[in-house]
């Protein structure tokens, strides 16, 4: 009896584990190529340039588009998918070219593991029947017919402009601006305004030259001139005093 109970318990546990594993896996039903194209918003071939996280549940892949089979023709595009492959998220590898079937959800393109995406040969030429898809078999004539003619390839986006001359990254100095050094005008010394001179006042009977202040000789300090003038006055006063005494002594 005990053995039967243990066997039933083991069977139930095995069923629970198997059911949980099946519930967490992503199972895709096969979709005809024409239906995959019809149910998609955009179908194109593009090469992954980068992958970034977009929250805890999604990742975004930036792609360089080369051919568009359905949808808007854009040189670059970003496609979002679930992070976990168990939730049918699609794995993008940088530098790899894909054929992608996307849908528009909440204003952005999304894709999943069951969308019908394939890894295709590198390059930019249009797809052909028999092209290898890295593990999913060669492209079928049915798929190529469903895709149709993509038209001319998408022109690559504009390249980034080269750094301007004098950019610190390229180690060159910026070109000199303005006039050459030889043409720069020499500095001009400021000119102090000239003090107006008062013309001499003429006295009747005297020449105006008599009232002009004598100009001291160049190189003679003003203190020396003042001392000489004082000495001259003192000598004149002494001579006048001696002359007065002599005149008093005369009978």
Determine the CATH topology of one domain: OB fold (Dihydrolipoamide Acetyltransferase, E2P)
**Mean pLDDT score:** 75
As residue ranges, the low-confidence spans are 1-23, 166-176, 179-184, 203-211
* Coarse structural class: alpha+beta
List keywords for this structure.
OB fold (Dihydrolipoamide Acetyltransferase, E2P); 4 helices
Note down, in words, how this protein is organized.
- With 251 residues, this protein is of the alpha+beta class.
- 25% of the residues lie in helices and 19% in strands.
- The protein has a domain at 33-147: OB fold (Dihydrolipoamide Acetyltransferase, E2P) (Beta Barrel), CATH 2.40.50.120.
- The radius of gyration is 53 Å and the shape is rod-shaped.
- The termini are far apart.
- Mean pLDDT is 75; it is low at 1-23, 166-176, 179-184 and 203-211.
How are the elements arranged and paired?
Elements: H1 2-24, H2 33-38, E1 42-54, E2 58-70, E3 76-82, E4 97-105, E5 108-110, E6 118-119, H3 141-147, H4 222-249
Parallel strand pairs: 3-5
Antiparallel strand pairs: 1-2, 1-4, 2-3, 4-5, 4-6
What's this, in brief?
The protein is 25% helix and 19% strand.
């Amino acid at each position: 009896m005990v053995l039967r109970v243990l066997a039933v318990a083991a069977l139930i546990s095995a069923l629970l584990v198997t059911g949980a594993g099946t519930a967490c896996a992503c199972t895709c039903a096969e979709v005809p190529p024409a239906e995959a194209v019809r149910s998609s918003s955009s179908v194109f071939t593009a090469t992954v340039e980068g992958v970034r996280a977009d929250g805890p549940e999604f990742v975004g892949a930036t792609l360089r588009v080369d051919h568009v089979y359905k949808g808007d023709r854009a040189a670059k595009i970003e496609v979002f998918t679930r992070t976990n492959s168990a939730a049918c998220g699609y794995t993008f590898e940088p530098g790899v070219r894909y054929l992608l079937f996307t849908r528009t959800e909440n204003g952005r393109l999304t894709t999943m593991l069951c969308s019908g995406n394939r890894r295709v040969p590198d390059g930019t030429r249009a797809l052909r029947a028999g092209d290898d898809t890295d593990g999913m078999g060669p492209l079928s004539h049915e798929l190529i017919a469903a895709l149709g003619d993509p038209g001319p390839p998408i022109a690559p986006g504009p390249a980034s402009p080269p750094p301007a001359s004098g950019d610190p990254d390229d180690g060159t100095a910026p070109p000199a601006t303005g006039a050459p050094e030889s043409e720069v005008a020499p500095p001009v010394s400021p000119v102090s305004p000239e003090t107006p001179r008062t013309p001499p006042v003429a006295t009747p009977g005297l020449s105006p030259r008599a009232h002009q202040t004598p100009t001291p000789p160049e190189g003679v300090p003003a203190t020396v001139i003042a001392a000489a003038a004082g000495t001259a006055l003192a000598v004149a006063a002494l001579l006048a005093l001696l002359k007065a005494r002599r005149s008093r002594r005369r009978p």
